[in-house]
What does this fold into?
Amino acid sequence: MEGKGIPRGVPRRTLLRASAAGAAAAALPLVNVHGQTSSGKLALGLWDHWVPAGNDGMRKLVTEWGQKNRVEIQLDFITSVGNKNLLTIAAESQARQGHDMLSFPTWEVHAQAEKLEPLDDIMGRLSQKYGALNPIVEYLGKVEGKWRAVPAISGSQNKPALGRIDLLKQHAGVDIQEMFPANANAGGKAADWNWDTFLRAAEACQKAGVPFGLPAGQFTDATDWIGSLFRSFGAELVNAKGDITAKSDGVRRVLEYSQKLFAFLPNDVFSWDDASNNRALISGKSALIFNPPSAWAVAKRDAPAVSEHLWTFPAPAGAQGRFTPYLPYFWGVWSFSRNKGAAKALVEFLSERDQAAAMVAASNGYDIPPFTSMTDFDTWEKEGPPTGVVYNYPVKPHHQAQQFIACYPAPPEIAVQMYNQGIQAKMIARVVQNKEPIDRTIAWAERELEGFKRG
Amino acid sequence: MSQGTLSVPTEPAEATPRNTALKRLARRNSTTAFLLTLPLILLILGLVIYPFAYAIYLSTLNRRMTRFIGWENFTFLLGRETFWNVVFQSVLFAVSAVLLKAFIGFVLAHVLHALPSKGQRKWRGMLLVPWVIPPAISTLAWWWLFDPSYSAFNWALMGIGVDPVPWLGQAGWARFSVILVNVWYGSPFFMIMYLAALKSVPDQLYEAAAIDGASGWQKLRHVTFPMMRNVISITVLFSLIVTFANFDIVRILTNGGPQDTTHVFATYAFQVGIQSGDIPLGASVSLFMFPLLAIFAIFTLRGVNKRSKEMS
It folds into this structure.
């Protein structure tokens, strides 16, 4: 945590000049951003970025804005390690005091909706300027027709495939650079990148001693890729109305597929956490994982020989399409904030294209803006080696993919429980580890889901 | 308000000045005692009584915390398969870990007690190390030993030609692993308590037993054990409470997995309450520990009181 008083460090003469000018300008509003007047202090609790330079980039933007608008900023970076951000949100929500603006992870906007300031005005202006948003942020950030938070750039991430160019070509005959090069055209074989090809590649890599590193525990990396796998098979456990739809051919098919796939994965993936897959890739023991570019960034620092062979590319497609795992963050303003005007002005400032580009650059391309029109920043083209390693990290039109959050489109109050309790991963574990019949596993899932529907 | 302050009767006029001064002193002492305990009372009120009462209040609310629903959270939990798994695992975890800790602590205490006093302090210090390291840190070290891909244990096993063990990936092994770490962490506490109890057993009792021709086992059964029973009961009670409420070991090692088989009350309450946004249900899960432990505490403390009365 850190606190930053912007006016500190201002030279004495400047301060005196400002005081003299301030007396004359006392009747004028100190801040005038889109007609909102604000001044005074603003306490921010922003996500502590995985990428170290990410915090510096954010601090710079916020400091500049504070100085320009003469708002004293107190900036805290709150880590998601150990769910400290969730604990902060829960504590501030109960105490009805704390920061003015916070970073809210995926499901928290719905959970805290009644205590969040509506931000429809900001979203209206941003949508007008930058066009279409992906539907997942609308699902997560809009509650009963009102935007309760603005989809954040910092911290929002995709989890596409991140694979070894050399190992996949050598052992599985899959040329990922040819399929998804670092330009806006898909290769000839991009359409063949589906779960069947994936299964064959998984088998080949397992036989070569570099199995795919796909976690299947109760951590988000597991839930996210498994959620996309289910969706691309049309395996929906709960529909948008909240009806349980687990007893379906799609669910049976995805569980049958999982039985085949998990035979080619390390047998301990059910206990992997969010770091296990990264370690498997960085240590050279695995040919493919699903992850943001943080794994590549660490490999670049610690294992350059590995990082030079890494390439980001979309998830495989299934019968229902191609779905890229996506985990957005949101910026929200508490309804009990003492400086709502300034908080809203800052949220809008941070969401604009220039600031988005700066955040993406500072995070080595990790951050994903919510607007489709912001997927063309040159950071993703230039990062390397190999140059273009993260070109396909944001979802581009030629990927023919959609961003997707596991458990969508179940109503968020049900989906959050399905997501955090890893129900899809547990279903796979039951059929793979316990060798339970698929129908019995589905019946178990139905009973669990029935409990999640409790109001 | 201090009882002493309230109950001191008015002094009769003929009381001697010395007597009055003593009573004043007594009164002052009780006031001082109350003031000295006041920080602790406030601490218990603020950090135990208030959160407990607040948890009870929360457990009576609906998911959105907008409506009073009485016992519904509890009845809902009682109908959940996963919750009963959590109850089973919590009892298995706490009871087996406490029994193992008590046994290991008992053996270690006897071994230490038998050592010459010169070298005893060194061994005592070394054996206490697991207990003085913050559990979050030592559990991380254990996690590295159990790590799915790079387990040091598996590396050693493979070195002697044994297949690697999925320490945290299969229900049985994962349960064993979390219990093992808890036993490793908690045994020194039992050891030090039992050692203190052993040192307080008068030597004359052993001498009398020896004169009566008692064997080593008979001395242990008829002298040592009865003299340690109160300490054993209190230690087991205390440890059972702490072990039932354990969070960090399970959270760090398995996060409740695989398939919820290692969840204990605290980790499940966290997952349901904080991570899944259902704070009232999380509060209800954590409150389930209370009646279980309260019943056990009542029986244990009754036994301790009974024995204390018999001995006095």
Chain B touches chain A through 34 residues (CB under 8 Å).
